[in-house]
Write a structure and sequence with these properties.
The complex is a heterotrimer of chains A (116), B (247) and C (139).
Chain A lengths: L5 H29 L10 H9 L1 H30 L5 H25 L2
Chain B lengths: L3 E8 L9 E8 L6 H12 L18 E4 L2 E4 L13 E4 L6 E3 L2 E2 L2 H9 L21 H8 L9 H5 L1 H5 L6 H11 L7 H8 L13 H5 L6 H21 L6
Parallel strand pairs in B: 1-5
Antiparallel strand pairs in B: 1-2, 3-4, 3-5, 6-7
Chain C lengths: L27 H32 L1 H11 L2 H28 L3 E2 L2 E2 L2 H25 L2
Antiparallel strand pairs in C: 1-2
Classes of the chains: A mainly alpha (116), B alpha+beta (247), C mainly alpha (139).
Chain lengths: 116, 247, 139
């Protein structure tokens, strides 16, 4: 077995960074700005639900939430280390960052599994 | 035409002072002078006790690295005319212990450089009778950029991670490891990956990217480290998924 | 010789400066780096918003309507505007640095950086267009 899972966490970070770079701007623009500000008409509840029922869309949403959370966990962890010089809190920071990402991943899986 | 330019130079004389101080010198301005020429003028005519390293004056030896106006530079390649009207601030490289004035101790870098085995490693040397190891232009191209390093340590001085985590092996040493990994004659990549996957190796880097920007030889250590991370990650996946023999 | 200097011949007292906690404010490049790393906070924020959206979607039309109303409040519009700018910064830095991390070789020759960067931006445009089409189609 490999000694350290750092390479794996870095792969998650990279994959998540790529997903966020490619997809987050348009989603934030649509969901966070265009719809609330009325630039476009809000898709109806039924149409969004219909979309999410599609298995491909569920997989898409799972990847969309999970990988970027791991991207955040990795980047934020090192930003805390370097920016605040708090390396002595390593254990706490690691549990907080990757724990949050893991919790979000489990929650995404649960929600996408249970949506009717 | 400016007749003179002011240099503000860090002095540190451990037998006299416990903290570095600042000295101000006026040197004549000449448009073909670099900062190193100005420092030599100070040493020759104004203050013979000023200490700094230099050798070749032409960007090959890597001895005269200092901070000029806040960024790590080869002083032999920093023209006075680029910093007019002055004053020009000259400091020792960051993150290395200062021995005296502008001279830093480089033994940490030398130790790290040796640690990554920057030489060609072969399982079996070919007998001389079989001739030289030939390389195609493409094979040369794969590592040539990384072989341009002159060990001037500007990249260490630009790397905040090295400052925060002095155990970090650092930009130049990793780029030089990559220089030998990418060499078609070398067979030492697994050994080096082992060394650089350790705690103080490639995974410390957070890709600030300043090492690449300050490199006077366009070596791109930041690129070398990220490419090394990808290699390390792929190796990790393989070691997880494949049986021992197939790696 | 000053009082606090302790100099022994052949054992020089080296001077080491501690890195300031504010090192990342010392120059523009370091500040840009920390700003780039902090884009991840807004990435996590929007991943959270998406989770929230999925939860209200599962709870039914009323909960979903409340979710939409909440996103319309000035607080959330402002948060999303800031998040959008940060995520845009993330995308641009990510694409521009991509060719450094991933070297693509075609028949032994390194593909020029601008081609790799260009392909990233092209994929970004195509995917963004596709997402907009799919999300807005079923109005």
């Amino acid at each position: 077995m490999p000694r350290s899972i750092t390479p794996f966490l870095w792969l998650l970070f990279s994959a998540g960074g790529t997903v966020a770079a490619l997809l987050f701007p348009i989603h934030i623009l649509l969901t966070g700005l265009a719809v609330p500000l009325g630039w476009v008409n809000a898709p109806s509840y039924e149409s969004v639900l219909g979309l999410v029922r599609n298995p491909v869309a569920r997989l898409y949403l799972f990847v969309f939430v999970s990988l970027p959370l791991f991207h955040w966990a990795h980047r934020f962890r090192y930003t805390l280390y370097d920016g605040l010089q708090v390396k002595h809190l390593t254990a706490l920071i690691v549990v907080f960052c990757y724990g949050t990402a893991l919790a979000g991943t489990v929650m995404a899986a649960y929600l996408l599994w249970t949506i009717p | 035409m400016q007749p003179a330019v002011t240099l503000r130079v860090t002095r540190y004389r451990p037998e006299q002072e416990s903290e570095p101080t600042l000295a101000t010198y006026e040197v004549p301005y000449r448009k073909d002078w670099v900062v190193l020429d100005a420092l030599n003028y100070i040493k020759d005519t104004l203050d013979g006790s000023l200490s700094f390293r230099w050798s070749c004056r032409m960007g090959v030896c890597g001895s005269c690295g200092m901070k000029v106006n806040g960024s790590p530079k080869l002083t032999c390649a920093s023209f006075l005319s680029d910093s007019l009207p002055g004053p020009i601030r000259v400091e020792p490289l960051d993150y290395f212990p200062v021995v005296r004035d502008l001279v830093v101790d480089m033994s940490d870098f030398m130790r790290k450089l040796k640690k990554v085995k920057p030489w060609i490693i072969r399982h079996d040397e070919r007998p001389l009778a079989e001739g030289e190891y030939l390389q195609t232009p493409d094979q040369l191209d794969a590592y040539k950029q990384f072989s341009m390093c002159i060990n001037c340590m500007l990249c260490y001085s630009a790397c905040p991670i090295y400052g925060l985590e002095p155990s970090f092996i650092g930009p130049a040493a990793i780029a030089l490891a990559q220089r030998y990994n990418m060499d078609s004659r070398d067979e030492g990549a697994p050994e080096r990956l082992e060394i650089l996957s350790e705690h103080d190796g490639i995974w410390q880097c957070t890709f600030v990217g300043e090492c690449t920007k300050v490199c006077p030889k366009h070596v791109d250590p930041a690129g070398a480290i990220q490419q090394y991370k990808l290699t390390g990650a792929i190796h990790w996946l393989k070691s997880l998924l494949l049986p021992r023999g197939a790696r | 010789m000053s009082a606090e200097a302790h100099y022994t011949p052949y054992h020089p007292r080296w001077y080491r400066r501690r890195v300031s906690v504010w090192w990342w404010l010392q120059n523009r490049a370091y500040a840009g780096f920390v700003l780039r790393e902090l884009t991840s906070v807004f990435v996590a924020f929007f991943a959270g918003v998406t989770l929230w959206q999925l939860r209200t979607l599962a709870q039914g039309p009323d909960a979903y309507a409340r979710f939409l109303a909440c996103l319309g409040t000035p607080l959330f519009v402002a948060l999303h505007a800031v998040a959008f700018l940060f995520v845009l910064f993330h995308s641009i830095t990510w694409f521009n640095l991509a060719p450094k991390a991933v070297v693509v070789r075609l028949s032994g020759k390194r593909v020029p950086d601008w081609v790799v960067v260009g392909l990233n931006y092209a994929a970004w445009l195509v995917l963004s267009g596709a997402v907009a089409l799919i999300v807005l189609r079923g109005r």
